[in-house]
Amino acid sequence: LPDGRIVGYAYRELRRGEDRLWGFGWGAVHPDYRRQGIGTQLVRATDAQFIERVSAEDAGDKVIFMQRFLRDTNPDEIAIAVNEGYKELRSSYRMMLPLDRPFAPVTLPEGFVLRPFDRERDAEAVFEVDQSSFMDGGGQPNRQPYDEWAAYHFKEGFFNPALWLVAMAGDEIAGICINEAWGPEQPDLCWVARLGVLRPWRGRGLGEALLRHSFYVIQQQGYKRAGLGVRADRPGTVALYQRAGMQIYCRFIHYRKVLRGNDAEIES
After folding, report:
1. Cα–Cα distance between 219 and 189 in angstroms, integer?
2. Which residue segment(s) compose the domain that 19 sits in?
3. pLDDT tens, 122-158?
4. Which of the residues 29, 96, 107, 245 has the least number of beta carbons within 10 Å of its own beta carbon?
5. Is residue 156 classed as helix, strand or coil in its secondary structure?
6. Per-residue exposure over 22-44, b if at least 16 CB sit within 10 Å of its own CB, e if not
7. The domain spanning residue 147 has which CATH number?
């Protein structure tokens, strides 16, 4: 506003893949200033910034698209996205567990042991396990560049090596659980960002054990809540999290606008 008050905000992120450039857009408008066109202008501005940014990239023949995750309880926000050319893609849940009781350490299934995470030694190996496990049934269509992955997960103020779990099967990493601070706006919340087990070691309870042990580690680091996001079209994964005590607290609908490429052929 002219007097300096902030009544809305928006930002976008650019991600790169082997065959794609894509962005995530977020934003909000203060309830007292909604239905005045501010939300529409914010969406248009961030979309324009994204187009400007990707135009500076060496995109080759990569597909290009923008996605937005919108609460299913906000029809006005959804209407803006649809009016700006976005189409519904899928939905996801956010799940939460209050750490309001003492949690005990969890012993991994037979054949697995935990190894403390050492960034210099383990970062690239954990990256490989993370990418492989999510591309093998986890809904991730292709590899994320290592530099982009590292920049995201090793951000100052969010990264804590004590919150990273590495499960070993002999000399090989079998599974990982990456936990990180949500941020200063919710300092009591720790986010289970990535939980993955490689296919040869699935079906032995390792993923659930890593998740349950994460709750203990998260509580030991002083957090009061553990949260995560999960695709709604992964009922087995949702059930695993529920067995561990987590509950769904909100649903997001994912919307996508394809700028280059065949919408029907793009997995994202």
Report:
1. 10
2. 8-91+253-265
3. 999 999 999 999 999 888 888 899 999 999 999 999 9
4. 107
5. coil
6. bbbbebebeeeebeeebbeebbe
7. 3.40.630.30
